[in-house]
Specification:
Elements: H1 12-15, H2 23-50, H3 53-60, H4 64-71, H5 74-90, H6 92-96, H7 104-117, H8 119-134, H9 136-158, H10 163-183, H11 194-210
Length: 212
């Protein structure tokens, strides 16, 4: 095909600015983001059992077939949504390796409670924990995420023969305390100053990670 004076015609594809995404690609990314945002909101408000793919689709303003198309089952939607929400906590392994091993307990404890004390990161974490406590499927997804992306990273930083068990015990200490403070809201723990909690908890976490 030729243009004026025999010059090759410029197709719509060629005319599109290089590097600019196709409209369909941009729309797809936007749809996925809307679905994930709706899923996090639904799981947060209703928990895993009461949340449905149809409800997520309605909240996202899409057909439920699109939710299945992009993510698959409800379990897979949950896994994708919590991985995004849990992302800040996955950086905990970086906090472990940022200094000497004899200070790892305080660094890890301070990092985790910094996430819980921030309302922006606390809200999705509450949704994750509540869903995991009330539903075995959600709990299994949460366990896989914790084991593969957090505990193993921490264990690699500790580099001791029983490092995985040490990492799990430290995580149990931190998660248990967070459950009592932020989910169950047991007093006086729920109202205690975060620095007081960190001061008391950090030596215990240190003992789990590096103690004899």
């Amino acid at each position: 095909m030729t243009g004026p004076e025999g010059a090759p015609a410029v197709s719509d594809t060629t005319a599109r600015k290089r590097g600019r995404p196709r409209r369909g690609e941009s729309d797809a990314a936007g749809t996925r983001d809307r679905i994930l945002a709706a899923a996090r909101e639904e799981f947060s408000e209703r928990g895993y059992e009461k949340t449905s793919v149809r409800g997520i689709a309605k909240a996202a303003g899409v057909d439920s077939a699109l939710v299945h198309h992009y993510f698959g089952t409800k379990e897979q939607v949950f896994a994708a949504s919590i991985e995004v929400a849990f992302a800040p906590a996955l950086n905990a392994s970086d906090a472990v390796g940022e200094g000497p091993l004899d200070g790892v307990g305080e660094r890890l404890t301070r990092f985790i409670f910094g996430i819980w004390e921030n309302p922006t990161t606390r809200t999705p974490l509450l949704a994750i924990v509540r869903s995991a406590v009330n539903n075995e499927t959600a709990a299994a997804v949460f366990r896989r995420l914790i084991a593969s992306q957090l505990l193993r990273r921490i264990a690699a930083q500790v580099d001791l023969p029983d490092a995985e068990l040490r990492a799990e015990l430290a995580a149990a200490q931190l998660v248990g305390t967070a459950m009592l403070r932020y989910v169950i809201k047991v007093e006086p723990l729920a109202s205690a100053d975060p620095e007081q909690i960190i001061a008391r908890l950090a030596p215990v976490v240190q003992g789990h990670l590096t103690g004899a």
